[in-house]
Amino acid sequence: MSFNIADNLSDLNVRYVQLRAINSSASGQFQFSKGLPLLRFEINDSIAPLMLQGAHLRLTGKMTAGKSGGGNFQQAEPLESNYINRFAGVHGCIDNIVISSKRLNSNLERVQNYNRLVPSIVSTIHGREDIAGDLFHQSGSISNNWISRNALIARNSSGKGRDFSIPLYLGTLHSGSDINLSRTSGLSGLTIDILLKSDANVVWGSDSNSDSATYNLSDIALTVPLMEVSGETQERIEKAPDTFSFNTWSSVLTTINSQVSVVSLNPGLSRVTSVLFNAVNSQELGNQNFDPGRLGNLGQLERLRYTQNGVLFPLQYNLDTTDRQNASASQGGKVSESVKCRAGNVRNVLESVITSSYFKARHTSMAFNEFNSSVVNVNQTAGKNGDNVQTVEQFGLIYDMFGSGSNFSTSTWSVELTVPEIDGNAATSQSLFVYFLNKNDVEFSQNGIDIIR
Questions:
Q1: Separation in Å, CA 33 to CA 135, 215, 338, 341, 447
Q2: Does domain 9-242 have CATH number 3.50.50.60?
Q3: Across residues 249-258, what is the average pLDDT?
Q4: How confident is the model at residue 448 (pLDDT cuts 50, 70, 90)?
Q5: Phi then psi for 41, rounded to 5 degrees?
Q6: How many whole angstroms separate alpha carbon 293 and alpha carbon 288?
Q7: pLDDT tens-digit readout, 194-206
Q8: Which of 4, 189, 18, 222 is nearest to 108 (CA)?
Q9: Nearest to residue 412, comparing CAs of 269, 278, 249?
Q10: What's the pTM?
Q11: Which residues in the chain are classed under CATH 2.60.120.730?
């Protein structure tokens, strides 16, 4: 029961509903440090088919940041080291998101470590122009940390911070199909739970650390685009097969600490479309001096090797990615060796996010004409404190772009990484955030719903 019904406009009545969090306090503010880190929204069901356009759903409100002792960041403090992640912006406030059927009480998708998934998605499919324009106004995203400081400064007389209006990067909402909320032929409404991150993992930098900087969200609302259907479209939906197909992101956090590391996971998923992962120095996590969403540089990566149950899959070869800087590299207009070696991984990352051929990607921050993607002679902690330019380092692989996915329900997914700089010491240990994009089906019956993953 996957529909996109915009082709029959005469049967549609589109309306936008703005919802407040049902657990909102009297002040209307949500703040981790004040014990209210959860936002819960309920989208009601209906008897007749009622379609949700998930990709156009928006979380809106204000983000205000300041010092723990009181007072928001003001115009007089634009040069202090107070930052939010440049790609995530306000998305960096979110730790986990759960979307579930309201009446049937079944989880559809649970995205953990959301604050690190968003930088990978945004940097992969958006270039500098997108980020400086549309995304800056949506979420405060910007292409470098120095300018991101301005996103935290109070801009009006009441001391409030910046307005935001952000989509939610959930597989369920971006599956390409409208979601039926009907109690008779659909998911019976939705519940969306948003868990916020701690202050130290959102507002960061040397001054933020010394001031124990905090943040809060206010004027929060969820803008929900709904389509009431009638006529032939309603009949078609009600007579459709009792299934609904959608995507989900799921994540795993793991650590590597040796020159040749093998990450082996059992996803328990039967239709994996792609895998995407990024890394950051393990000692930076939870430290307010450093960027919690930094797409860190592993080091001079020499080889990637993807396997299923120990057998090379889907690529029947190793990805040799050695970054070599020789006499011709970056001199006299000649092409660097590193560009040739890194191109394969960049292509794979693009395909893992857009779930299609890499040439369909029109914008990216992983372009080789910017420092962002270059990791030649760049150490593992480059830009960690916001005072220097950061890299955009991530890895991914598409397993299927046609619909069936690869079966990891009972098999082991593995990746082998060879990085000489990771020498077994705590200072070089890397935390890997691994995300699987999986296709799922919901089957409806008189007893409720069954989710096939």
A1: 27, 8, 45, 45, 42
A2: no
A3: 96
A4: low
A5: -120, 140
A6: 12
A7: 999 999 999 999 9
A8: 189
A9: 269
A10: 0.91
A11: 245-442
